[in-house]
Specification:
Layout (H helix, E strand, L loop, with lengths): L1 H11 L4 H32 L3 H5 L13 H7 L2 H33 L6 H13 L4 H10 L17 H14 L2 H9 L4 H9 L4 H17 L2 H6 L8 H18 L2 H43 L5
Helix pairs in contact: 2-14, 4-14, 5-8, 5-11, 5-13, 11-14, 13-14
Length: 304
């Protein structure tokens, strides 16, 4: 009864005038930030389906004008687009799995106090966060391993990410105490069994966070493909879309008169459609892991 009375009395407490002003200012700032963040994305979507003349003349603000799907029809009719989608999905799935397999065990090992040479291994992983071998040595190493122009060049050479290891180590330090390992030993559980049966089921948050980061990074990756891939059959979506943009800009620059204006408008329309096509799938993935994403980031930041 006492708790119920205290809760009821707390509800009856009225906010002061200063509190109401403060809340109003905070909500106003939050709404403005949401609008500033979302409007560019909203504009890209409506611009991609609007009349190109209205878009180029700056007549488009909040609602699409003259629904036009020419840009999407041209993109969807481009055969290499589907090859790029297939390759990018393959690289994203395969790359994410390899990143988890490589980085999660390393981060867990570094989180254990009894790891022999722990400081040395930590220092070894920290060096690549600040210094790299450079493009030419990396290219020569990839070439010597016969990975050039293969699907593996997109997922293997860059699968070790020190930042992911540090995030995972922080999470395991805060969430997997040594006492849990001691209790598992009493039940006859070894190192491998403890990792798979206890640690991984308790680490869904950090697994989701690193998986999301890895998938987004792989989905947006184009530089590695630009350097290490030559075959058009292996090119990811970002390279295919880049080629489409370049070809449309070239066509618009080679024409004159009214045809040049129309080609320029179409090129701009395709540019907006390309952004939607490349961003929509990975944005649809985020709501499914948002809960784990938020939880994992907060758990990894509670303690140093």
């Amino acid at each position: 009864m006492g708790k119920e009375v205290s809760v009821t009395s707390a509800k009856k407490i009225k906010k002061s005038r200063d509190d109401k002003i403060f809340d109003f200012i905070m909500y106003t700032i939050a709404i403005l930030l949401i609008i500033i963040t979302l409007y560019p994305m909203y504009f890209i979507v409506i611009a991609s389906i609007s009349d190109p003349t209205a878009v180029s003349n700056g007549e488009l603000l909040f609602l699409p004008t003259g629904i036009n799907l020419k840009a999407y029809k041209e993109l969807l009719g481009y055969a290499k687009l589907w090859i790029g989608y297939r390759n990018t999905i393959l690289y994203a799935i395969l790359g994410t799995v390899i990143v988890l397999v490589v980085n999660i065990p390393a981060s867990y090992a570094l989180s254990r106090k009894k790891l022999y040479g722990k400081k040395l291994f930590t220092f070894f992983y920290l060096i690549p966060m600040f210094f790299t071998g450079g493009l030419i040595p990396t290219y020569l190493a990839v070439k010597n391993f016969n990975l050039l122009d293969t699907i593996w060049v997109m997922v293997l050479p860059f699968s070790v990410v020190p930042y992911y290891i540090i995030v995972g180590r922080t999470f395991f330090n805060n969430s997997i105490p040594e006492e849990l390992w001691e209790a598992a030993q009493l039940d006859g559980c070894g190192y491998i069994g403890f990792f798979f049966r206890v640690v991984l089921p308790l680490s869904k948050a950090v697994l989701a966070v690193i998986a999301l980061w890895a998938a987004v990074g792989q989905w947006n990756s184009y530089f590695n493909a630009l350097i290490y891939l030559r075959s058009e059959e292996l090119q990811p979506l970002q390279i295919v879309l880049r080629n489409i943009l370049i070809s449309n800009q070239t066509i618009s620059s080679m024409t004159t008169g009214a045809a040049a204006v129309e080609a320029k408008q179409m090129a701009d329309l395709i540019k907006y459609a390309v952004i939607v096509v490349s961003s929509a799938p990975i944005m649809c993935l985020y709501p499914f892991v948002q809960k784990y994403f938020n939880q994992g980031v907060m758990l990894g930041s509670l303690k140093g």
